[in-house]
């Protein structure tokens, strides 16, 4: 299965195969059958659902997220187009259920098809466990996992090769060593600035993650952080001091990339045990030497359904 996927990716990269998934253009969820809820979160107003698309083999995942209100459309919401259903009254307090017109009440829907078992396991709400990864653990446990079982990087190569999301690129530095592509993360609707979330993907190949960073990569890190922030300021007007940039360890995708978020957005990906601020990474490499991340024991959290967690338990 794994070999098949990698062979197909190689063919796709060589242009030998047309990407058949591109034929999946949904106009509604008519063909989608819910199998189970993987996770729901009332605070974030999200639900993660696994199901099937009729006539297509294998599981699909749909992630629904209610969009925040915005000052620009609030007058349209607070108008005769919204029906009110009375719920209760006490003194000066009245509560209603507001039935808002569908176009003003949209949700963001992300469809992942075909969804791999590993991605489903990752999305499923599970207990998290902290792992202390020594340099030897990295060589004997994590590296073989990255080589054999980690998620496909095809979507990243599509971005770098301008085969997908080309019109969404906010900034690109084409330099093969320090260059990168900056674009909105899948998680961001590009409307609500308080949830601003962009992704910087480096052009250089072969840097799988934080573990591979050396002193020679400092110019790349500085370039991605500085140019990326400036491009975000130029496009969206967010001051540089309000853009946080971090790297995940462990990431889901092992091609080096950086997360850029508005400081007001507290995303779970920014938690301890996952996020490493780019300023700190640069400082560590400059002050403590090129092998800092090669030699350190790194601590991170894994969900108990993740393959990497299972690999750590076996050792
Ligand atoms: P990560 O640190 O590898 O994984 O980040 P994690 O955050 O899931 O632990 C990968 C980032 O890429 C995430 O923030 C995803 O939302 C984002 N992302 C994933 N895919 C498949 C796409 C995509 O196709 N396009 C864009 N623009 N972003 C994506």
Task: Report what the structure shows.
- The protein is α+β, with helices and mostly antiparallel strands and 315 residues long.
- The chain has three domains: 1-67 and 106-116, Phosphorylase Kinase, domain 1; 74-103, no CATH class; 126-314, HIT family, subunit A (2-Layer Sandwich).
- It contains nine helices and 14 strands.
- A six-stranded antiparallel beta sheet has the order 8-9-10-12-11-13. A four-stranded antiparallel beta sheet has the order 1-2-3-6, with no helix packed on it. The protein has a two-stranded antiparallel sheet with strand order 4-5.
- A hairpin with a 6-residue loop joins strand 8 and strand 9.
- Helix 6 runs antiparallel to helix 7 (278-288).
- The protein is globular and about 65 Å long.
- Residues 155, 165, 183, 185-187, 199, 248, 251-253, 269 line the site of 7N-methyl-8-hydroguanosine-5'-diphosphate.
């Amino acid at each position: 299965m794994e070999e098949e996927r990698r062979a197909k990716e190689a063919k796709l990269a060589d242009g030998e195969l047309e990407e058949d998934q591109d034929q999946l253009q949904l106009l509604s969820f008519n063909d989608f059958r819910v199998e189970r809820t993987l996770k729901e979160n009332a605070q974030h107003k999200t639900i993660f659902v696994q199901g099937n698309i009729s006539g297509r083999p294998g599981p699909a995942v749909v992630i629904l997220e209610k969009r925040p209100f915005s000052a620009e459309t609030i007058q349209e919401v607070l108008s005769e187009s919204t029906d009110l259903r009375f719920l209760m009254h006490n003194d000066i307090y009245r509560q209603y259920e507001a039935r808002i017109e569908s176009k003003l009440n949209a949700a963001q829907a992300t469809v992942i098809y075909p969804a791999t078992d590993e991605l489903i396991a990752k999305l499923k709400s599970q207990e998290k466990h902290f792992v202390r990864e020594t340099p030897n653990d990295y060589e004997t446990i994590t590296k073989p996992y990255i080589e054999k079982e980690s998620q496909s990087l095809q979507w990243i190569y599509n971005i770098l090769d301008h085969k997908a999301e080309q019109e969404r690129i906010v900034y690109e530095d084409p330099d093969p060593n320090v260059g990168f592509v900056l674009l909105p993360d899948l998680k961001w609707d590009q409307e609500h600035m308080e949830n601003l979330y962009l992704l910087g993907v480096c052009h250089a190949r072969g840097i799988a993650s934080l573990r591979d960073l050396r002193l020679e990569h400092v110019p790349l890190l500085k370039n991605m952080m500085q140019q990326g922030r400036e491009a975000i300021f130029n496009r969206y007007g967010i001051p540089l001091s309000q853009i946080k940039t971090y790297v995940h360890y462990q990431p889901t995708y092992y091609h080096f990339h950086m997360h850029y978020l508005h400081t007001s957005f507290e995303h779970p990906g920014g938690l301890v045990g996952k996020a490493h601020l780019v300023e700190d990474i640069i400082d560590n490499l400059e002050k403590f030497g090129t092998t800092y991340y090669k030699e350190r024991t790194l601590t991170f959290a894994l969900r108990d359904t993740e393959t990497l967690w299972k690999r750590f338990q076996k050792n």
